[in-house]
Amino acid sequence: MVAKIKSGKNLIGALNYNENKVKAGKAKLIAASGYIKTHDMLSFRDKLFRLTDLAERNLRTKTNTVHLSLNFDVREQIDDDKLLSIADEYMNKIGFEYQPYLVYKHLDAGHPHVHIVTTNIEPDGKRISLHNIGELLSEPARKAIEIDFGLVQASSKKNKNDLDEHIKIQPLAYGMIDTKRGITNIVTAVTKTYKFTSLPELNAILNLYNVVADKGTKESVMFKNGGLHYWVIDSNGKKTGIPIKASSIYNKPTLQLLEERFRLNEYLRKPFKEKLKAKIDKVSAQTISLDQFKNDLKKADVTVIIRQNNDGRIYGISYIDHINKVIFNGSDLGKNYSAAAIIEALQYTPTANVSASVDKAFLHKPGLGNDKQFFTGNHSRGLLEELLNPFDPNATVPNQFGPKKKRKKRRKLNL
After folding, report:
1. Distance of CA 9 to CAs 64, 116, 124, Å?
2. CA angle 166, 172, 174 (to 5 degrees)
3. Rounded to a whole number, what is the largest CA-CA distance in the chain?
4. pLDDT tens per residue across span 355-368
5. Is 18 helix (H, G, I), strand (E, B) or coil?
6. Burial level of 294, CB count in 10 A (0-12/13-18/19+)?
7. Considering the entire predicted model, what is its pTM?
């Protein structure tokens, strides 16, 4: 659990923030402690008046608003009753058990969390000190609650690594889940676990889950200011719905932060380069078509991304290794793994009178070099000509030697 405490001078602002979330269907009020009415019977005026009534009892204290949030691990499924018990216990441990407070459960992020709005002015006008409350009261309360309620411990490095390993995400379908929550889940999981070195590489991974990171057009204000939005995309790659600002997502995957990750990931992905090449070599030695190449690599948990222009011409290829969580462009792996080399090697499809088994047997004939040389295109042209122009035993001259040349008659010289 992670607890955050913000103090301020605007009770109506803190209340409006949560109430607007409720109106948008992104939050709900689950409890109201210290109120005469039950939480479901309170009007906006009821909620606000109870807090401002106390705040006005100490006009000398300008900081009279406390807005807290309790955030839980994404793997935890916590019902409303348990959330309320945790909130009550936390407020008790930090000295706010007798203060009126409102507990809102938010639904628009990738992790369970609640917001709590209260005031630090007591009924007798005294002020509850907020100085160093995080270290002195909140931190011990958080640790005790994690143990008492069996929560994932936020300070545990082991649990953080376990979280990365167990994050499960599915492609986002627009309208099936709250857009911000769905995008947050996917972007958080991808940026935490995958090693990408550019925005196009990040998008190659995000696109698998129907999400795209967008800097805007070069003429846009967002592009000039280095902003970044995340969109849901449909099956045709078209942006759908409304964009979500990077800064509004929980771990803030802004362009500035991503660019720092690009540089770091250049080093972090290096140990996995040869492993990925080995997977590709193994598959390419046994495939004779691009579709088979992609399908066989998929079985090895490697996604092949083919990039084409509007005319259908293939100009790039990327490989996403989901086991080691890395992505490489073909050219980064080497010339033999580029789009041009792969397409040239795998463009041959056996015809009805040339079976795949014959093709494979031929490729393993002694003296023709290894399979990798064939599939990188070094011998493919010559081999195809021999396969497609087999020896004809009925021909006067074997066709592989070409047509018989006519001999020129020599002109006799008259002496």
Report:
1. 6, 16, 19
2. 155
3. 141
4. 333 333 333 333 33
5. helix
6. middle
7. 0.53
